[in-house]
Specification:
By secondary structure, the chain is an alpha/beta fold. Helices cover about 40% and strands about 20% of the residues. Strands 1-2-3-4-5-6-7 form a seven-stranded parallel β-sheet.
Length: about 190
C-alpha cells in the first residue's frame, strides 16, 4: 500500500486505528503527508494520536478530549478535532447523540490544544438512499445549531460524512470531507 500512496502522490491520509496510523506515518516519514485519525480513540492510545495525527475526526467524549489534550500539550502542539455524532442512532456506532453535540462542543473550550473545526458521522449502513441521506441531513442540522448558538468560537466549517459507498450522496448533502479508502485501496484485508 505504501508504494501506491507514493506513486499516487497522496498527501492527506486517514487511518481507523492509532497503532496502524503510527506505523504508516513512520514508514512514510520522508513524505509530506498529513495524517487523520478517523476511528475511535481509547485514552490509553492518546499518545499515539498526539504523536502522529494532525487531525482527529472521532472525538466523542470529554474524557478522550482530556487525555488527548494532555498529550498534545506535553508535545507542544495542537490538533484539529471533529466531534463524532451518531446520526443513525445505532448502538453499535460511536459518537454522541445529536442533542448532546452542543454540550460536548462547549466542554472542548477547556482544552487549549484542541481546535474544534467540524463534525463527523458514519451513516446507517444501507442501500436505502433516503435513510442514508437522513443521517447526513441530521449532521448538517447539528452544524447549523452549533453555528447559530456560536458554540466554542468555531465556525464548524467541516462536515466529514460519506464513505466509499455513499460519498456522492454525502457531497450532495454538504459534506466537505469524504472518507474513501476502500474505493482507492480496496477492502481491508
Amino acid at each position: 500500500m505504501t508504494d501506491a500512496i507514493k506513486q499516487a502522490g497522496l498527501t492527506r491520509l486517514a487511518e481507523n486505528r492509532p497503532q496502524e496510523l503510527a506505523v504508516k506515518a513512520q514508514v512514510l516519514a520522508d513524505r509530506a503527508v498529513s495524517w487523520v485519525l478517523i476511528g475511535p480513540l481509547q485514552t490509553n492510545k492518546a499518545a499515539l494520536a498526539a504523536n502522529w495525527a494532525d487531525q482527529f475526526q472521532a472525538l466523542d467524549s470529554l474524557r478522550t478530549a482530556e487525555a488527548l489534550d494532555r498529550r498534545l500539550q506535553a508535545l507542544g502542539r495542537d490538533m484539529e478535532v471533529l466531534i463524532e455524532v451518531n446520526t443513525s442512532g445505532e448502538s453499535a456506532k460511536h459518537g454522541v447523540a445529536p442533542d448532546q453535540a452542543a454540550d460536548l462542543a462547549r466542554g472542548l473550550q477547556a482544552f487549549s490544544a484542541l481546535r474544534p473545526i467540524g463534525l463527523m458521522t458514519v451513516a446507517v449502513n444501507s442501500s436505502d438512499e433516503a435513510r442514508v441521506r437522513e443521517c447526513f441531513r441530521c449532521l448538517r442540522q447539528v452544524q447549523t445549531q452549533l453555528r447559530d448558538d456560536s458554540v466554542a468560537d468555531s465556525e464548524w466549517a467541516e462536515l466529514s460524512m460519506g464513505m466509499s459507498g455513499d460519498y456522492q450522496w454525502a457531497i450532495e448533502e454538504g459534506s466537505t470531507i469524504v472518507r474513501i479508502g476502500s474505493a482507492i485501496f480496496g477492502p481491508r484485508p
